Amino acid sequence: MHEDYRIALIRELRDQQVRFAPRGKRLEQAERAERLLSELDAKRQYPYEFIYFRVTDYRPSESVRRMISGTDAAHDLRLFVEDVSDSLDLRQEASEPVHTVEELSRMFNVSTKTISRWRDQGLVSRRFVCDGRKRVGFLHSSVERFVSRNLRRVKRGERFSQLSDDERAEIIERARNLAIDGANLSEVARRVATQVRRSVETVRYTLKNHDRRHPEQAVFPDQRPELSADDKRSIYQQSLRGVSISQLCRRYGRVRGSIVRILNEQRAERLFELNLEFIPNEVFESADEKVVAEILGPTPEPIIPPRKMKPPAGLPTYLASLYDVQLLTREQEYHLFRKMNYLKFQAQKLREQLDASNPKASLMDEIDRLYQASVDVKNQIVQANLRLVVSIAKRHVGGNDDFFGLISDGNMSLIRAVEKFDYARGNKFSTYASWAIMKNFARSIPDEYKHKDRFRTTGEEVLLSRQDERADQFAMEIAHQQRQSQITNILNRLDEREQQIIIRRFGLDHSHEPLTLKEVGEAMGVTKERIRQLEARALSKLREAASVEHIELPD
Length: 555
Known about the structure:
With 555 residues, this protein is mainly α.
């Protein structure tokens, strides 16, 4: 049985019919599904109820308002026919001829690989019992139906038939003459394909096959037989930085289709790494269009406009800016949490349909869109509750504690609380978040003191025993902001790449933790050692700039 259905509803229909439908009914439904497949338009959308009715001659027991593209419907109906016929243990009958893959290959003068491609493009096969084994076969009527709808494709396949030995030798000789001038594999394959009237992929496959079997006579002796995992990751990173597909083709000696496939596979790999965990809710599975529109709609306005709070005088810019964000009402809070989790639910459902070996770009675009939308909603919730972190941090800060360190730690606890909060229980998020933040402070602050006690020196004991005569906390925060301004001024002395390295290495943008040399290198598409060299040069420039600005730097 196939597992690569694109539409879960059609796979469920397959399971239902294979398990419970009588034999005669299953045979009839396979015929009905094949007839429907031959009528579908790839550019149209079809209601699932329509597909269900055409296959089973019944209406679904529950209303499922789901539109399915013609391409996905055709793909899944072909699998449906094969799976249902597989469950019937069909035998070849004299009433209609059944062709094997090899027979079709000879009939149309094409390769068996082309027949496999035709199956993906709508040629319906069945599984028949022959000599005690199940084999793939094609009803003559199925072949005629496919040919009538794909006459140009079949004619093109006949024109590009299997290569003879003389044709293969001609391709290799022409390619060798072109390669002498320094052309790469992609360029040679394209030019030879035009000369011998073959597909580019056929020529490229022929050349690679020859070089692999006869390395001493290879046309491209330096051609890498296969790109490594590091090569593929580098291709993806370069593409993110704006390197065109044409440039990547020339750098790696690959055709455009190969590079596009690598980019899609790497993108799919990143999507599978996304954290799409969500708080489940029974409404998600049964939501109709009206409910979905309500869930994804705009945040409701409060009945009573909230009073804008004025920040206390003397606060640093960062803390004062928190008072510009309005607190959420209970209704707004419920709406945003439900929206965030529903978006991740939708993204997760789509990711289950994603084929890692052959990912669809449109499907990945939609997963990306849903994930980014959920992140935007999460950030909105976090922004509205940052004041809560500051309030709790003030109550826990001690004479020797780093106030901004506590806030940073509390912000991480807040983000985790947003992802774990079950809004359906009716509790206020601030209660749950306060508990999570204080629990983290209760654990982290004693651990920090233990660390300090373990490594405390005699000089530190003397200093800690003296009365703390430093300025108040707000004055320290203002001084911190002044230092930040000075740092910004000297960073402007660096070029853009050096600025990015320093900012990422030391977490100066406040939105990311400091990164390692390897992580910065992967983000910028260069080696760890190159990042180390650029960082040393940038730090040298910063020391000179700090001297001009009269800023004291630690040793």
